[in-house]
Amino acid sequence: MSDKPSVAFLGLGVMGYPVAGHLARAGHPTAVYNRTTAKAERFAAEFSARAAPTPRAAAKGADLVFACVGNDDDLRQVTLGDTGAFAGMKEGAIFVDHTTASAEAARELFAAARAKGLGFIDAPVSGGQAGAERGALTVMCGGEAADFARAQPVISAYARAIAHMGPSGAGQLTKMVNQIAIAGLIQSLAEALHFATRAGLDASAVVALIKNGAAQSWQMENRAATMLAGEFDHGFAVEWMRKDLAICLDEARRNGALLPVAALVDQFYAEVERLGGARWDTSSLIARLAR
Questions:
Q1: Which of 4, 60, 116, 175 is catalytic?
Q2: 90 is a catalytic site residue
Q3: What is the pLDDT of residues 116-126, one digit of tens each?
Q4: Under DSSP, is residue 7 helix (H, G, I), strand (E, B) or coil?
Q5: Is the pTM of this model over 0.85?
Q6: What contacts 257, CB < 8 A, 6 or more positions away?
Q7: Which terminus has fewer CB within 10 Å in the chain: N or C?
């Protein structure tokens, strides 16, 4: 018997599968649920975990229940109702949501969890699939400080950086800041590489030099080479970035923030989608310049 908290994980996509794997490898008794049952069964066989037919069944008896699904509606589907996780969680258990969702949904589910004697932490992540696989994600958390203190040691199994950002919804708001910053960075890098190429420079040599100065960024370090090669079959999909930017722009309409660059980049991503790039990496912004 393990002396570590038992966990359940809902959603075994490109992020959820490796994150759940880190929890299992860290010695946490693990149950999993996925809409595609075969993937849950594969995970169970690989990590000696328990595959469950519903979120409720996966959550039964777990100390912490984690989720990483697609959007607000997916999140409500795995938490609420007769087959949702909240119906199966024991009193005092904590739900940790790694979905990038709206702050509104986080607050709604926080209230629903509290009404059942449960904790709820909105904890979106940054670092992409590679960060999930390496166990090096940045985790931004909102909710009660006491719940965060209990969850933090478990989350540390796959996090490089983790912080409590404030009350319910603060984690999702922090993730919005992250996505707004990334959108502008990728567009700027796309324009810079496009300009270098049109100017007759060796763009790869330019990047090798300027990445040592003030222009350096994660995007430049990890995406410049594939952008120049026109390779986009990896990373975070355009359609998911558009989902995230829609959340950011909707929140901005509520709080009065002005996001002209984010709104423009969202339109540029719509052009990439029309080029057939809905599943391309977000760095494919350069494709619309190279036509």
A1: 175
A2: no
A3: 999 999 999 99
A4: strand
A5: yes
A6: 251
A7: N
